[in-house]
Task: structure prediction
Amino acid sequence: MSELSQLSPQPLWDIFAKVCSIPHPSYHEEELARHILEWAAEQGLHAERDQVGNILLRKPATAGMENRKPVVLQAHLDMVPQKNNDTVHDFLKDPIQPYVDNGWVKARGTTLGADNGIGLASALAALVAKDVEHGPLEVLLTMTEESGMDGAFGLQPNWLQAEILINTDSETEGEIYMGCAGGIDFISTLPLTREAVAADFTPLKLTLKGLKGGHSGADIHLGLGNANKLLARFLSDHADEFDVRLADFTGGTLRNAIPREAVAHIAVPAAQVEAFRKAVDAFQATLQFELAAVEKNIKLVTESSDSSAKVLSKDSQNRFIGLLNATPNGVIRMSDDVKGVVETSLNVGVVSMNEGEAEVICLIRSLIDSGKDYVVSMLTSVGQLAGAKTAPKGGYPGWKPDPESPVMAQVREIYQGLFNKTPNIMVIHAGLECGLFKKPYPDMDMVSIGPTITGPHSPDEQVHIGSVDLYWQLLIALLKAIPVRG
Result:
């Protein structure tokens, strides 16, 4: 943590270092929440929680700014827990280990939690930094954003006093966000029947690994490999050729992270093992050629296995492989209205299997409701063809852009004045909580800003130190410039 204490601005980096030291993956944010409440009491700040666990902090205006419009800075408490295969780390017990590397802050073998820990730290720092001038100020910290936006769904009207909301969950410095995609989960459940494997079959473990992974919204257009889809493709191409019998398939850990690894436990006739291994090597070479520009470390590895599990019946196996191979993935359509932005996408995020059924969890995102509806319809049809039960779940709305937003215009003007360049006004394909906030607070003026974070939702996550300083300058200048109440 000492490396971070040398960085500027302070106290932002000190607060972020403390956040890193407290485990806070989705659904396990209570320890961090308790720390923040204790910290708020020490700072003499008003603090309260609502029925879903969201935290609201309040601080009166600095002298002479009491008549300014009240503002709420908003961040979420949780982080995405992802680690490299060779990293020993318990996200429920172990602290994140950040370090400085050539102008970036990274974590040792895990996600860093800069998404949204830097935004959280900036909001708390704004409450206590001595050089920040502001009107009436609130900080809203929401629960479990990464795994379902529980806090945003549970936010009640008439709790916030602010007229302007500044979301801190954007991930590119120099871009101002005024809209985002909505999303919905889609779960396909396929019943399975099993049978004993013949005695002359050899059990093997087939692992596709080495992929980058990433954010299923912000990175979906990059053409990154999806381990679930690539392994399903191999099985579809070669299962019949080598009489492969599938016993188990698992891949991915979160529906909003592009899967980096998938594993299949299989059995192959002993006489076919060597030929099968050659087919694996050939497919690995194919993937390395196809994905050479984006995936440098992709591997498909065959290992011996001592598994004695029953294998799927031929009918169940064909249905499962067909379901997974036919399920679309990635960009479905680019936006006509916002050039260069994905309109509709989906991520085949998590595949799991037990004795009696297989489950495929996808996350659909779209800037328009009809785009979500189309992909739901498509996945429903694929599921029906395979004999799977299908169910959309947990839909949340997008944040409709408001080109006339006063705070967006103000941020653009302040940015231009500070840095002598024009920021990009953007709509992000990732999900922000602002769309949900519009239901209890329909008149709230909203904008989203943040520093540059690359590789979110993967162990490659890193935050650019210089961009944090620029983001902080913008944030404190914006708070100082908030207009008076009408």
Remarks:
- Residues 58 and 427 are 29 Å apart (CA to CA).
- The chain has a mean pLDDT of 95.
